[in-house]
Write a structure and sequence with these properties.
The complex is a heterodimer of chains A (119) and B (110). With 119 residues, chain A is an all-beta fold. Chain A contains no helices and eleven strands. In chain A, the strands form two sheets. In chain A, strands 2, 4, 5, 6, 9, 10 and 11 form a seven-stranded mixed β-sheet that branches. Chain A has a four-stranded antiparallel β-sheet with strand order 1-3-8-7, with no helix packed on it. In chain A, a hairpin with a 4-residue loop joins strand 7 and strand 8. Chain A is globular and about 40 Å long. Chain B is mostly beta strands and 110 residues long. In chain B, strands 2, 4, 5, 8, 9 and 10 form a six-stranded mixed β-sheet that branches. In chain B, strands 1-3-7-6 form a four-stranded antiparallel β-sheet, with no helix packed on it. Classes of the chains: A mainly beta (119), B mainly beta (110).
Protein backbone atom coordinates (compact mmCIF):
# COMPACT_ATOMS: atom_id res chain seq x y z
CA UNK A 1 0.00 0.00 0.00
CA UNK A 2 1.35 3.41 -0.97
CA UNK A 3 1.77 5.70 2.02
CA UNK A 4 2.98 9.30 2.12
CA UNK A 5 3.35 11.07 5.45
CA UNK A 6 4.17 14.77 5.62
CA UNK A 7 5.82 16.45 8.59
CA UNK A 8 7.45 19.74 9.51
CA UNK A 9 4.47 22.05 9.25
CA UNK A 10 3.67 24.69 11.82
CA UNK A 11 3.38 28.38 12.61
CA UNK A 12 6.17 30.59 11.26
CA UNK A 13 6.66 34.33 11.00
CA UNK A 14 6.83 36.09 7.62
CA UNK A 15 10.34 36.12 6.20
CA UNK A 16 11.42 32.99 8.09
CA UNK A 17 12.13 29.50 6.78
CA UNK A 18 10.57 26.08 7.20
CA UNK A 19 11.42 22.61 5.89
CA UNK A 20 8.75 20.06 5.04
CA UNK A 21 9.48 16.34 4.80
CA UNK A 22 7.51 13.49 3.27
CA UNK A 23 8.23 9.86 4.21
CA UNK A 24 7.19 7.37 1.53
CA UNK A 25 6.55 3.63 1.59
CA UNK A 26 4.81 0.94 -0.41
CA UNK A 27 6.38 1.59 -3.81
CA UNK A 28 9.77 1.74 -5.53
CA UNK A 29 10.62 5.31 -4.57
CA UNK A 30 13.48 5.67 -7.07
CA UNK A 31 11.23 5.11 -10.09
CA UNK A 32 8.67 7.90 -9.74
CA UNK A 33 8.36 11.66 -9.84
CA UNK A 34 7.05 13.44 -6.77
CA UNK A 35 5.15 16.66 -6.14
CA UNK A 36 4.29 19.24 -3.53
CA UNK A 37 0.81 20.71 -3.87
CA UNK A 38 -0.85 23.14 -1.47
CA UNK A 39 -4.45 23.92 -0.62
CA UNK A 40 -4.69 27.63 -0.07
CA UNK A 41 -7.64 28.85 2.03
CA UNK A 42 -10.36 30.18 -0.24
CA UNK A 43 -8.34 29.49 -3.41
CA UNK A 44 -8.23 25.76 -4.01
CA UNK A 45 -5.32 23.57 -5.01
CA UNK A 46 -2.05 25.07 -6.22
CA UNK A 47 0.82 23.04 -7.68
CA UNK A 48 4.00 24.12 -5.90
CA UNK A 49 6.85 21.98 -7.19
CA UNK A 50 7.82 18.64 -8.71
CA UNK A 51 10.91 16.48 -9.07
CA UNK A 52 11.41 13.68 -11.58
CA UNK A 53 13.11 10.34 -10.97
CA UNK A 54 16.26 11.88 -12.45
CA UNK A 55 16.05 14.97 -10.21
CA UNK A 56 14.75 17.32 -12.87
CA UNK A 57 12.82 19.95 -10.92
CA UNK A 58 10.08 22.45 -11.62
CA UNK A 59 8.46 25.23 -9.61
CA UNK A 60 5.39 27.40 -9.71
CA UNK A 61 6.20 31.03 -10.47
CA UNK A 62 4.87 32.03 -7.05
CA UNK A 63 7.61 30.07 -5.23
CA UNK A 64 10.49 30.12 -7.72
CA UNK A 65 13.65 31.36 -6.06
CA UNK A 66 12.28 30.87 -2.54
CA UNK A 67 11.44 27.15 -2.37
CA UNK A 68 13.73 24.19 -3.11
CA UNK A 69 12.52 20.64 -3.67
CA UNK A 70 14.80 17.66 -3.15
CA UNK A 71 14.63 13.92 -2.65
CA UNK A 72 16.69 11.31 -0.82
CA UNK A 73 16.16 7.96 -2.53
CA UNK A 74 18.08 6.05 0.13
CA UNK A 75 15.75 7.38 2.82
CA UNK A 76 12.65 7.32 0.58
CA UNK A 77 11.98 10.91 1.50
CA UNK A 78 10.91 14.09 -0.26
CA UNK A 79 11.69 17.55 1.06
CA UNK A 80 10.60 21.14 0.50
CA UNK A 81 12.83 23.89 1.83
CA UNK A 82 10.80 27.09 2.08
CA UNK A 83 12.54 30.42 2.59
CA UNK A 84 11.36 34.04 2.77
CA UNK A 85 7.90 32.82 3.65
CA UNK A 86 4.95 35.12 3.04
CA UNK A 87 1.46 35.16 4.49
CA UNK A 88 0.08 33.93 1.18
CA UNK A 89 2.16 30.74 1.53
CA UNK A 90 -0.26 29.68 4.26
CA UNK A 91 -2.02 26.43 3.46
CA UNK A 92 -2.08 22.67 3.71
CA UNK A 93 0.91 21.18 1.88
CA UNK A 94 0.45 17.77 0.28
CA UNK A 95 3.14 15.40 -0.90
CA UNK A 96 2.13 13.33 -3.93
CA UNK A 97 3.59 10.43 -5.91
CA UNK A 98 3.30 10.62 -9.69
CA UNK A 99 2.10 7.77 -11.88
CA UNK A 100 5.19 8.26 -14.01
CA UNK A 101 8.94 8.92 -13.65
CA UNK A 102 8.37 12.40 -15.07
CA UNK A 103 6.27 15.27 -13.72
CA UNK A 104 2.93 14.37 -15.27
CA UNK A 105 0.13 13.06 -13.05
CA UNK A 106 0.05 13.08 -9.22
CA UNK A 107 -1.54 9.80 -8.24
CA UNK A 108 -1.28 9.10 -4.50
CA UNK A 109 -1.42 11.88 -1.95
CA UNK A 110 -0.54 12.26 1.72
CA UNK A 111 -2.87 13.73 4.31
CA UNK A 112 -1.08 17.08 4.28
CA UNK A 113 0.83 19.32 6.66
CA UNK A 114 -0.51 22.70 7.75
CA UNK A 115 1.79 25.69 7.29
CA UNK A 116 0.67 28.97 8.80
CA UNK A 117 2.68 32.09 8.03
CA UNK A 118 1.69 34.85 10.42
CA UNK A 119 3.24 37.37 12.75
CA UNK B 1 -6.46 33.81 -11.56
CA UNK B 2 -5.95 30.16 -12.58
CA UNK B 3 -4.32 29.20 -15.85
CA UNK B 4 -7.05 26.59 -16.23
CA UNK B 5 -10.67 27.72 -16.10
CA UNK B 6 -13.45 25.70 -14.51
CA UNK B 7 -17.03 26.68 -13.62
CA UNK B 8 -17.23 27.54 -9.90
CA UNK B 9 -20.15 25.20 -9.28
CA UNK B 10 -22.49 22.67 -10.87
CA UNK B 11 -25.46 20.84 -9.39
CA UNK B 12 -27.93 18.12 -10.27
CA UNK B 13 -30.34 15.70 -8.64
CA UNK B 14 -29.32 12.18 -7.57
CA UNK B 15 -29.04 9.87 -10.57
CA UNK B 16 -28.48 12.70 -13.02
CA UNK B 17 -25.25 13.62 -14.80
CA UNK B 18 -23.02 16.65 -14.41
CA UNK B 19 -20.30 17.85 -16.76
CA UNK B 20 -17.35 19.94 -15.63
CA UNK B 21 -15.28 21.74 -18.25
CA UNK B 22 -11.64 22.76 -18.03
CA UNK B 23 -10.09 25.08 -20.58
CA UNK B 24 -6.62 26.50 -20.90
CA UNK B 25 -6.17 30.28 -20.77
CA UNK B 26 -2.91 30.74 -22.61
CA UNK B 27 -2.02 27.35 -24.04
CA UNK B 28 -3.47 24.39 -25.83
CA UNK B 29 -4.42 22.15 -22.95
CA UNK B 30 -4.74 19.32 -25.43
CA UNK B 31 -0.94 19.06 -25.58
CA UNK B 32 -0.58 18.54 -21.85
CA UNK B 33 -1.11 15.65 -19.44
CA UNK B 34 -4.53 16.40 -17.90
CA UNK B 35 -5.88 14.80 -14.75
CA UNK B 36 -9.00 15.19 -12.64
CA UNK B 37 -9.13 15.07 -8.85
CA UNK B 38 -11.86 14.84 -6.24
CA UNK B 39 -11.23 16.68 -2.98
CA UNK B 40 -13.32 16.37 0.13
CA UNK B 41 -12.50 18.82 2.97
CA UNK B 42 -10.00 17.40 5.43
CA UNK B 43 -8.98 14.50 3.22
CA UNK B 44 -6.29 13.80 0.65
CA UNK B 45 -7.24 14.60 -2.96
CA UNK B 46 -8.11 11.52 -5.03
CA UNK B 47 -7.06 10.96 -8.64
CA UNK B 48 -10.13 10.21 -10.79
CA UNK B 49 -8.80 10.53 -14.35
CA UNK B 50 -5.30 10.78 -15.84
CA UNK B 51 -4.04 11.28 -19.39
CA UNK B 52 -7.33 13.05 -20.23
CA UNK B 53 -9.55 9.97 -20.15
CA UNK B 54 -8.02 7.04 -18.25
CA UNK B 55 -9.43 5.84 -14.92
CA UNK B 56 -7.09 4.38 -12.30
CA UNK B 57 -8.13 1.03 -10.93
CA UNK B 58 -10.89 1.32 -8.36
CA UNK B 59 -12.52 4.42 -9.82
CA UNK B 60 -16.11 3.71 -10.90
CA UNK B 61 -16.95 4.07 -14.58
CA UNK B 62 -19.51 6.72 -13.58
CA UNK B 63 -16.52 9.05 -13.82
CA UNK B 64 -15.30 9.68 -17.35
CA UNK B 65 -12.99 12.18 -18.99
CA UNK B 66 -12.76 13.43 -22.54
CA UNK B 67 -10.89 15.96 -24.62
CA UNK B 68 -12.09 18.22 -27.41
CA UNK B 69 -9.66 20.67 -28.91
CA UNK B 70 -8.36 23.10 -26.28
CA UNK B 71 -10.59 21.88 -23.46
CA UNK B 72 -11.24 18.74 -21.46
CA UNK B 73 -14.32 17.64 -19.54
CA UNK B 74 -15.21 15.41 -16.62
CA UNK B 75 -18.59 13.70 -16.61
CA UNK B 76 -20.10 12.26 -13.45
CA UNK B 77 -23.05 10.03 -14.26
CA UNK B 78 -25.54 8.53 -11.83
CA UNK B 79 -24.82 11.28 -9.31
CA UNK B 80 -24.72 10.18 -5.66
CA UNK B 81 -24.75 12.19 -2.44
CA UNK B 82 -21.24 10.95 -1.75
CA UNK B 83 -20.07 12.75 -4.90
CA UNK B 84 -20.51 16.14 -3.24
CA UNK B 85 -16.98 17.53 -3.27
CA UNK B 86 -14.65 19.93 -5.02
CA UNK B 87 -13.31 18.75 -8.37
CA UNK B 88 -10.10 20.03 -9.92
CA UNK B 89 -8.51 19.62 -13.30
CA UNK B 90 -4.74 19.68 -13.40
CA UNK B 91 -2.33 19.83 -16.31
CA UNK B 92 1.40 19.17 -16.44
CA UNK B 93 3.90 20.11 -19.12
CA UNK B 94 6.53 17.38 -19.06
CA UNK B 95 8.87 19.48 -21.22
CA UNK B 96 8.81 22.58 -19.02
CA UNK B 97 8.33 20.62 -15.79
CA UNK B 98 5.51 22.80 -14.57
CA UNK B 99 1.96 22.11 -13.53
CA UNK B 100 -1.31 23.97 -13.05
CA UNK B 101 -4.65 23.40 -11.41
CA UNK B 102 -7.99 24.83 -12.33
CA UNK B 103 -9.82 26.91 -9.78
CA UNK B 104 -12.02 23.98 -8.77
CA UNK B 105 -15.70 23.19 -9.21
CA UNK B 106 -18.02 22.49 -6.31
CA UNK B 107 -20.48 19.72 -7.12
CA UNK B 108 -23.76 19.84 -5.21
CA UNK B 109 -26.27 17.01 -5.24
CA UNK B 110 -29.74 18.55 -4.94
Amino acid sequence: EVQLVESGGGLVQPGRSLRLSCAASGFNFNDYALHWVRRVPGKGLEWVSGISWKNVVGYADSVKGRFTISRDNAKKSLFLEMRSLRTDDTGVYYCAKDRYPIIAAPEYWGQGALVTVSS
Amino acid sequence: QSVLTQPPSVSAAPGQKVTISCSGRNSNIGNLYVSWFQHLPGTAPKLLIYDNNTRPSGIPDRFSGSKSGPSVTLDIAGLQTGDEADYYCGAWDANLNVGFFGGGTKVTVL
